[in-house]
Amino acid sequence: MEKLRKIVHVDMDAFFAQIEQRDHPPYKNKPLIVGGPLNRGVVSTASYEARKYGVHSGMPLSKARRQCPGGIYVPVNMEKYLRESAKIRKIFSGFTPLVEIIGCDEGFLDVTGCEKLFGDALEIAKRIKGKIYEDTNLTSSAGIGPSKFFAKLASNMGKPNGLTVLDNKPEIIEKIKLLPVSYIWGVGHVTKKELKAMGIDTIGDLADTS
């Protein structure tokens, strides 16, 4: 019988914004928006405090300023963010060679068969999150599942700084069907609006149309 795969998805929490809040203590717990320059361009990352005002990645900065006039707006410092990303990638590769990096702030790790070295998938995810925080003073969210789809869904469910395990048991599938369609990998704000116009709000709604 083929062994069930164990996939861990690790996603940094509001990565760019979190780095700026770490490096500038007055920014902590404040609505912070990374993007630019000035009113041109779009939001790269919004802190969780800014997201409460409806600000999100990809939103025009001019609109973000209208929705969150009291926010702190800082330009993108990609060189700094990539330095932190390199540290995180190194941590990933210390647990398994089977790593798929997505952008600069997340990755999938296939930890199937790593139990004897590092413990089960839950223990590995805990250790990865702990090591990231120890080395960077940044939090991350992790999800565990039998596939990339389930692992990514799990990490989204636990944000920020969470750790969630999902499998394909019938009772778990029923819970997943109730989740907003935006939890699906690749469904952004634009697609979410288009689906809502079609009467599709949950993952279950989408499944029923296929």
Question: Care to describe what's here?
Answer:
This protein has 3 domains: 7-12 and 78-166, 2-Layer Sandwich (Alpha-Beta Plaits), CATH 3.30.70.270; 16-74, MutS, DNA mismatch repair protein, domain I (3-Layer(aba) Sandwich); 174-209, no CATH class. Helices cover 43% and strands 17% of the residues. The protein has 10 helices and 8 strands. It has helices at residues 15-23, 48-51, 61-67, 78-93, 115-118, 121-136, 148-157, 170-177, 189-197, 203-209, and strands spanning 7-12, 32-35, 43-46, 72-74, 99-102, 106-110, 140-145, 163-165. A 5-stranded mixed β-sheet has the order 5-6-1-7-8. A 3-stranded mixed β-sheet has the order 3-2-4. Helix 4 runs antiparallel to helix 6 (121-136). The longest helix is centred in the middle third of the chain and has 16 residues, at 78-93. The relative contact order is 0.15.
- According to CATH, what is the class of the largest domain? Alpha Beta
Termini separation comes to 30 Å
Give helix and strand order, one letter per element, not per position.
EHEEHHEHEEHHEHEHHH
CATH topology of the largest domain: Alpha-Beta Plaits
Describe the structure concisely.
The chain has 210 residues and is α/β, with parallel strands linked by helices.
Describe the secondary structure blueprint for this structure.
Elements: E1 7-12, H1 15-23, E2 32-35, E3 43-46, H2 48-51, H3 61-67, E4 72-74, H4 78-93, E5 99-102, E6 106-110, H5 115-118, H6 121-136, E7 140-145, H7 148-157, E8 163-165, H8 170-177, H9 189-197, H10 203-209
Protein name: UmuC domain-containing protein
GO molecular function: DNA-directed DNA polymerase activity
Organism: marine sediment metagenome
